[in-house]
Each structure stands twice: as structure tokens, then as C-alpha cells.
Amino acid sequence: xxxxxxxxxxxxxxxxxxxxxxxxxxxxxxxxxxxxxxxxxxxxxxxxxxxxxxxxxxxxxxxxxxxxxxxxxxxxxxxxxxxxxxxxxxxxxxxxxxxxxxxxxxxxxxxxxxxxxxxxxxxxxxxxxxxxxxxxxxxxxxxxxxxxxxxxxxxxxxxxxxxxxxxxxxxxxxxxxxxxxxxxxxxxxxxxxxxxxxxxxxxxxxxxxxxxxxxxxxxxxxxxxxxxxxxxxxxxxxxxxxxxxxxxxxxxxxxxxxxxxxxxxxxxxxxxxxxxxxxxxxxxxxxxxxxxxxxxxxxxxxxxxxxxxxxxxxxxxxxxxxxxxxxxxxxxxxxxxxxxxxxxxxxxxxxxxxxxxxxxxxxxxxxxxxxxxxxxxxxxxxxxxxxxxxxxxxxxxxxxxxxxxxxxxxxxxxxxxxxxxxxxxxxxxxxxxxxxxxxxxxxxxxxxxxxxxxxxxxxxxxxxxxxxxxxxxxxxxxxxxxxxxxxxxxxxxxxxxxxxxxxxxxxxxxxxxxxxxxxxxxxxxxxxxxxxxxxxxxxxxxxxxxxxxxxxxxxxxxxxx
Length: 561
Ligand SMILES: Nc1ncnc2c1ncn2[C@@H]1O[C@H](COP(=O)(O)OP(=O)(O)O)[C@@H](O)[C@H]1O
Ligand SMILES: [Mg+2]
Hints:
With about 550 residues, the protein is of the alpha/beta class. Among the domains are: about 1-140, no CATH class; about 270-345. The chain is built from 22 helices and 23 strands. Strands 9-8-23-22-21-10-20-19-11-18-14-15 form a twelve-stranded mixed beta sheet. Strands 1-2-5-4-3-7 form a six-stranded antiparallel beta barrel. A two-stranded antiparallel sheet has the order 12-13. Strand 22 and strand 23 form a beta hairpin. Helix 10 (about 290-300) packs across helix 13 (about 330-340). It starts with a helix and ends in a 7-residue tail after the last helix. It binds adenosine-5'-diphosphate and magnesium ion. Adenosine-5'-diphosphate binds near residues 195, 228 and 507. Magnesium ion (MG) binds near residues 193, 194 and 220.
């Protein structure tokens, strides 16, 4: 008799309080597929022991089909009942017996998942073209699942953070693929765009995957950055003194911050072309007739067109009146718009050493990344855009020339160049994108080895065609509906990600999707801190929490459900 009871207990195990344990032994088991489609995603009916409260959107779910594993992202959660009547007349949940009967049977949870990728028996990730059958079992992704998709850190793959709820593993970006097409880092102000961009650039520099030219509007990249909470973090020059050079438009600001810069950038008025102004049309309120006038002046006065316009000598103006069709009013309006150039000390009429030539030398011959600090000029969008347009146009010319000359021989090609701009929508606004150098670069793809890393909080204001050329999109929290739509537009499998994107944490969380990852992923971004510097400098894939994912994997690691 006694014996029998013991056996029964083995069949129906009880917890410390003597209550029957109803879970299946596998804590990761979520439930079974009960419906859905390839395009709209699948519905999974939750196992009764699974608490809906623990399931956050954005986490990975793996469905174990007969021949393959399907990787999905949780996009929505729903409470459902098998009996409509129960909604009008809920059972008495204070009775534990009734509660046990109802929960998970008549009333149950449904999770919605988007299909992202499948892995078959030979372990190669492939796009999903089929779906699992009814009642196939679904599980929380394990460390092994994630590692099978995101691989390990090496010369090309770089750890950017951990996936949701799977702290024991990491997400590795393919840096080669990252830099060969343009990259977007999006998110509201304060979500961690600058921190994340520094993490990405550190990876690219440490792995030598590209040289970077950073138009550093707010002194965020070169030297000693103060975070929102007042603590200091290192700039890229401090992390990679041999591979990064700082140059400055405002030497006083750089000196004050003790940033060791290589040289002060001076640009001669004579080198600025009307083309450099085209992208500033909306920012400087320049009309099309003013731009036409600029081209005319350029052809009459040659390289002196800006200085002579600003000088405004009576006989010069008369000459223009008589010999061109520029209306007098337009001429004066253009003159007034360009007057602000005179306040910018980096623009000069003196003959100066060619700063752009020096930048090209640093990038191409020394293979160094260059951070251009704007100092006080970072507050002037016009100054930022003029300088970025001008320098980028000249560097791009040089790159086109070099790549064409190399005749496809990679050993003669210049290094892959990534140009970083902030407030990117101002450069890539639909009204100007077709006429600016940044629009040209975004559209010509990787042909000339120059790509963009655009940092922006208003992706909806970026030209749609340019957006479609952004290969990898890294998106922190966005709350504007149009911005969310703009980043998800054109990404396959992104339909269900809307809810995920709108519910990211306000800091240090992002969805990465596109060219550099096998499937969209939500990450808690790696902290940019002392541990990060150490790991980067050691060149080894040490993670900031000091755990070794692979070691804990072997021991089964602590699983979070
Ligand atoms: N990866 C990160 N590591 C450490 N701190 C971070 C990280 N991401 C964000 N933060 C915190 O969030 C604040 C805002 O980040 P920041 O990059 O300046 O935002 P944004 O550029 O989007 O306005 C930082 O000052 C920092 O305290
Ligand atoms: Mg910022």
C-alpha cells in the first residue's frame, strides 16, 4: 500500500507545499502552434504552466519542426477563451480547484510570432519558405539556438550586445557586411545612439574593417565624452591612439577639452562650389533662382565667386546686372544669405594648406579614422552641413578616381570608407537628397567603397529611395508612428516588429535588422564602459559581465524562462 502511494507520487510530483506540479520538465516549453500563415506569422497556444506575464515582445521563440527549427520573434500576446460565456461570467478564482481547472484549458494565452529564419539539420540558417504543421511544439530560444544563428566572435564578427532574456549569449554583427552598405542608427533623443555608434565604430576600427570619417557635431566621438549622468567616457582617439586622428574646426574648444588634435581645418572660400550649397537649400532658405545665380557667378568670377559677392563692389554688381540675367534682388538675397560665412573663422581668403588633401592622406595612406570636431560650430546646422558637403564631395571625387584607376585590382584600391553624419535627415531630405553628395553616395551602393553611417532621430524625413539603400538599420526606441513605419518599410519579415519597436526600453536597447544580421534581433546594447575598453584593447571577445557564454553553455547555463 505504502509502496503504491510512493509510486503515485512519482507519477504526479508535488512541490514543497504539497501542491501538484503541473509543468512539463522542460522549462523552455511554451506551447504548440495552433494557426497562422507564413506572411502573417503564427499563433502559439501557451502551455498552461507558462505565465503570460513573463513573456515580453521581442524575445526569440524556436519551433521544433520535424526537419528544421524555425526561428521566430514574439510580436504580440493575447488572452483567449474557448468559451465566450466565461467573459460575461468569470469563474470564482478564489477557489484554487476551479482556478486550476480553468487556467490553461478554457482560458489560455496565445502568443503571436513572426517567422524569421529556419535552420535545417546541417545547421545552416536559411530564409523561411515553409511553416511548421499544426501542434508543432514551440520553445524559448536557448543559448545554443542563438549561437547557431549568430555564430562566434572573430575577425569579422563583433559582439554588440545580448538578446532579450538570454543574457548568457551574445549577438555578433558581421562587420564586413555592415560597412559594405550604408548603415542607419535611429532612435529618439537620449536613447543611446551616440553610445551605440561608438560601440559600432570601436568594432570596425579594432577589426580594421573600414576607415571612418566622422563629422562630429557635438564632440561625441574623439575625446572624453560626458554622459547624461555626468560621468566621463573615452573617445575613440583615447581607445585607439594609433588608428584615430582628431582634427578640429574650433581649436579653442578642442584645447579646452584637452583633446589632442592633429591639425586645424581651414577651408578657402575659393574651393566652395555652388554644388556644396545645393544641400543647404532648405536649411539656409535658398531658392532655386539663388542656386542658379550661384552657378552663374561661379562661371563669371571663377573661384573668386564667393569672395567677390561678399565684397560687393559697386562695379562688380553693375557688371553682373549688365552681363547676366540674375535679377538684382536675387543677387542681394544670396549675398545676405552667404554673409554668415564671414563669421566662421575656419573659412578664409588666405591661401592655406589643403586640409582635404591632408584628410585624404590620413584616411587612404595612413589608414586612420578621422574625427572632425566642430566645437562651437556644432550649434550651427549650416556650418555643419556646408563643411560635411564640401569635404565629402572632394573625398568622394578622390575615391572615384582611385577606384577607377585600380581597374578592379583590390591591392590598388583605397580602404573601405565609412562616413558618419548626424542629423542625417537634413542631408537626405527628399527635396535635396537627389542633389547632394550624400544622396549620390547612398544611391551608388558600394561601387566606390564609400558608404554612410547616418545617425538620426527622424528617419521618416529621409528620402525613401535613400532609406531603401540603407543595408543595416539599428533602431532604438521611436515613438512617432511615421518614423517607425519608415524604418520597418522594406525589411522582410518586419511587419510584426512594429509592436516590438514601439516597446523598446528608453535606453540601451535596439532592434538590429538587415544586411549585417541573419535575422532581426532585439539587443540590450553592450555597455560602453571600462570593461568594454579592456575587452576591445585585449582584442578578445570578453563580454562586459565577465561571463563566458560558451563555458556556461557546456554546463547548461542558467536558463531564464
Ligand atoms: N551602450 C551604452 N553604454 C552605457 N551607457 C549608455 C549606453 N547607451 C546609452 N547610455 C546612457 O544613455 C545616455 C544617452 O545616450 P546617448 O548616446 O547620448 O543618446 P542619443 O545620442 O540617442 O541622444 C548616455 O549618456 C548614457 O548614460
Ligand atoms: Mg547623441
